[in-house]
Predict the 3D structure of the following.
Amino acid sequence: MPKLTAPKGFPLTKAILTTTALMGATILTAPSWASSHREAPAITEKPKVDGTDFYMFRSYEQGREGFVTFIANYQPLQDGYGGPNYFTMDQDALYEIHVDNDGDAIEDITYSFTFDNILTNDGNGITLDIDGMTLPIPLRFAGPIGARNTVNLAELETYTIGVVTGDRRSGTRTPVGLRFTKPLDNVGSKTIPDYEAYALSNVSEVTLPGCDTASRVFVGQRQDAFAVNLGRIFDLVNLVPLEGSIEQSAANNELADKNVTSIALEVPISCLVGDGNGVIGAWTTASLPQAQILDPIPTFEQPALQGGAFVQVSRLSAPLVNEVVIGLPLKDLFNGSEPKDDAQAAAFVTNPTFPALIDTLFRDALGAEDNIAPSNFPRTDLVAAFLTGVEGVNQQSIVTGSEMMRLNTGIAPTPFGSQSNLGVAGDDLAGFPNGRRPGDDVVDIALRVVMGALCHDIPVNGEPTNLGFCSPEDAPVGDAPFTDGAPVKDTDLKAVFPYLNTPIAGDAGTGN
């Protein structure tokens, strides 16, 4: 079999996991194939802390190849015209990005973000004299805003960063010591004539504790980069999900006119890898204080009283795990759990239900006479792809089955314009599931993998190769070109930090 090749001492070998190794690992969930928007019952009540997507990749902006970029998106399905208060972050929440650099599924480094909204003019915002009475206006702004003109803002949204080494709650927490500004959302071209210039003026360099080289940070509204035929997918997959049966069209992307709020952080690789083998795992969470008491006389500064320890209410690494993989009774529990505890739902990966649903819906449409779901139980191919990493590609020095995004920092980034949107399955080792880039079409990738693509040959350095997890007979349609018809690729997005496109404007209906 041809050997895979990777730089910096990461030999790539054929990954074959035995049933004993599988059952010995603490695993949770089968692969994902879309994005996390309103994925569990409880989080629908808390949209400000609802994580939608998590990206982690070697930076491919020219000159930044020595960095890893994390992008954690929150607040799903934002309409550009969603005023007048738009989409500020939760001042009581703790938004975190966790990094495990040795493979034990326990965070070694945590980057935490907290937000604060402040009314200007001594807490009054912008005021007007109305017949001798000085009164605050009802809006967050009162005139044009730009990179060097924020005087017309009535409310400023700022944030701070803390870095925790060790346990996220009891470890050593070091504040960065700076306060950063989150730009106002893209309310429209009259208010903010050049939104991208205004937004990017808030990209900041910052030296994080434990790093000698400066990092970059940006928090603000972006156009949702995830592409999915959302309505038809959740209408019992109301399409035949094969190339040739559905047109590949941007018009199928029902998130194309939606925005999200992005927390983007670019960190030097040397600050992340620790004593492991250079493969890092990561995930993002949001937490809220355990207790809330609504104030019957609310004020801008204090609409409710918050208290108690932080309780995690959102969790995300690989996309759409909680929507279409975790069973309904466990969805809220998954959002509150940590990777180290993922043994609690191991059956969802060893015996995934989604392929059986595909068989039920599409056996006749695909002209099959028998079950089209893969039969290689337990699904060791899925475990390697999504829960342990693939040996020699993105498997950590300690192998702990857990739902984390894994990235081999020793594999060089593929340049912008040359990336395969099928990632590793497209002979591009720098893509999903070795991390995730904004241009990776994770819907098509994971649809194919869940239906058994890794039981068939995939290109490895241009040569068709079977990875040895299972055989073609185990997956009768594993070589079928499954798709949702909503394509995405790297050149649909930006080539520079923070990579995601300008958010849809409130007045224009288009981003860029």
Q: What stands out?
A: The chain is about 10% helix and 25% strand.
